[in-house]
Amino acid sequence: MKHTLIALSLFAAGTAMAQNVAVVNGKPIPLARMSMLERQVTEAGQKVTDEIKQKIRDELVTREIFVQEALARGLNKSPEFVDQMELARSSLLIRQLVADEKAKHPITDAQIKGEYDRVVGAMNAQEYNASHILVEDEAKAKDLIKQIQGGADFAELAKQNSKDPGSGANGGALDWATPDSYVPEFSGAMVKLAKGEVTSEPVKSQFGWHIIKLMDTRKAAAPDFAQVKDAVRKSLEQRQMAEFEGKLRKNARIQ
User: Fold this and answer.
1) CA dist 9 to 1, 16, 29, 30, 101, Å?
2) CA-CA distance, 47 to 60, in Å (whole number)?
3) Which end of the chain is more exposed for a tag (fewer CB within 10 A), N or C?
């Protein structure tokens, strides 16, 4: 009989350990808690090795020891702790609510493609291929404009005179860009030019005096769907949650 009781006791202890990470001062730490932390490690892109498992177990044991000491001191009854617990509780509930709402109303691939097509269809942005010569004073700029008007090669003048280290050596070429890529004074003058036209007056900006030549224009290219799919999904989810919040606020009694 005695041996049977010992065997049952050992069996019960083994079963308890199988369900728990450890038992600290009689208080079990559920295995589910360790599994949750292991999932977080995996989601962070890290492999859960035996060493990581041991570190997680040690951390859980340490936490339990600290928690038991805090409870023994009655810290769980302090006003500060109660307030912080309520904030933590509300944060967790909100997180669960958001996850539940997303699960019940998932954003579909069809919605993502539809939003992408809508945005691309509404795109009217123009790209400009311009060149410029940047000099330090207005008189120099006006002289260069006269030379260009007299038949001088714009690219050669840019190589010889431009103070812009990025484009000067390239004959002043700036490549394709939208107007908002430049300072307002520059873009304002550039968009008024016809293809092949050069500004008749120097354009002053914070960098100096510009002579601008418009090489060509084109409609801005749309980004590839595969490249922006995740960003579009996130945007739709944010819009969906904003609408959900608005609906809840509308139905709430706020005094």
Assistant:
1) 12, 11, 19, 20, 47
2) 19
3) C
Q: How far apart are CA 210 and CA 132, in angstroms?
A: 6
Look at residue 218 and give its three-state secondary structure. strand
CA distances from 59 to 37, 64, 67, 68, 126 (A): 10, 9, 12, 14, 57
pLDDT at 121: 80
> Phi and psi of 142, rounded to 5°?
-65, -35
166-193: pLDDT as tens digits:
899 999 999 899 898 999 999 999 999 9
Angstrom distance (rounded) from CA 201 to CA 145: 8
* pLDDT confidence band for 18 (50 / 70 / 90): low
Say how far apart CA 207 and CA 205 lie, in whole Å.
5
Q: Show the tokens assigned to 178.
A: 């939208």
- Is the Cβ–Cβ distance between 208 and 186 less than 8 Å? no
How far apart, in whole angstroms, are the C-alpha atoms of residue 28 and residue 68? 12
Contact 117/222 with Cβ under 8 angstroms?
A: no
Q: What pLDDT sits at residue 141?
A: 97
For residue range 78-100, what is the model confidence (pLDDT) as tens digits?
999 999 999 999 999 999 999 99
Cα–Cα distance measured from residue 15 to residue 32, given in angstroms and rounded to the nearest whole number = 15
* Residue 28, number of CB atoms within 10 A of its CB: 15
Gap between the Cα atoms of 200 and 196, Å rounded: 12
Is-contact 204 185, C-beta < 8 A?
yes
